[in-house]
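#lab-general

N.A. 3:47 PM
ok so I finally got the sequence cleaned up, no stray characters, all 275 residues accounted for. can someone with queue access submit it? mine expired

B.Y. 3:52 PM
send it over

N.A. 3:53 PM
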Amino acid sequence: MKYISWNIDSINAALTGNSPRAALSREVLGSIAREEADIIALQETKLPAKGMNKKQAAVLGEYFPDYDIAWTSSCEPARKGYAGTMALYRKDLQVKADYPVIHAPEPMDCEGRLITLELPDYYFSLVYTPNAGDGLRRLEERQIWDRQYAAYLSQLAGEKPVIACGDYNVAHKEIDLAHPESNRRSPGFTDEEREGFTFLLEKGFTDTFRYLHGDIEGVYSWWAQRVRTSKINNSGWRIDYFLVSDGIKDKIVRSEMMDSGPRQDHTPLLLEMDF
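B.Y. 4:20 PM
back already:
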C-alpha cells in the first residue's frame, strides 16, 4: 500500500491559478498522480465551507480520475477559507470517512483540520496541526491541541492500527531543521511543541522516516517561501510526518520526501507499507 501526504497551500491556487508558483504546484500534482498511491492526504486546502466549485473539481478529477474524495473546510466561528484538509482514496478501497472533533480550544475544531478514514484493517488519519503563530500567540492553545490529538490517536489505536500523517508544524529534534540554534523560540521549534510531539510518539507511534533513516541530517519537508534562497541552500525544516502504530512499524518499506523541484514551501511525503 502506498500513501502520499502534502500541504498544498491552497488547492484553488494549485488547480486554477495562473502564477508561476501555480504552474510549479501542478507539476507536483502530476508527480503525485504518477505514483498511483492508494490514499493521498492534502492539508491547507483553503476551500470555502461549500467545497470545490465545478472547475476545481473537474481539474482535480483529471489528475485523479480513479479516486473518491473526503474533505472538510473551515466554518464559523473560524475564519473563512482557512486551513482545511482533503483525502483522496482509490475507489476500490472500502472506506468510511469521519471528521472528528477532539475538543480543542475554539475555534480549532471548526478549522477543518482532521479527517480519519476507517478501512477494514486500520485507520488512516490526516491532520493539519495549528501553528503557534507569530509571537507564539497561540502556543497555549497549541499545547492543548497536542494533548487532545494524542488522546484521539491513542483511542483509535486501541481499536486497530493507525497510519497518521500531515503537517504537524513542529521540528521534533535539532536535526530536523537547518538552524536550530537561531530558532529556539520560533513557532514550530519551542520546547513545548517538541515535548508535545514526544508525548504523541510515547503513546505508541513511530516516526516512519526516522525508523528507516536513523539520524540522517539535511533532509527536510519545508522551505520558507519568504526566503528566496531557502531551498537552494537547503535551509529547511522537517515538519511533515508519517506516523504508524508501533505494532505495524515492521511493515514500513519506504518513507521519504518526494522531489518537488524548485517549488518552495512543503514537499510531498511518500510512505509505502507491506501488508
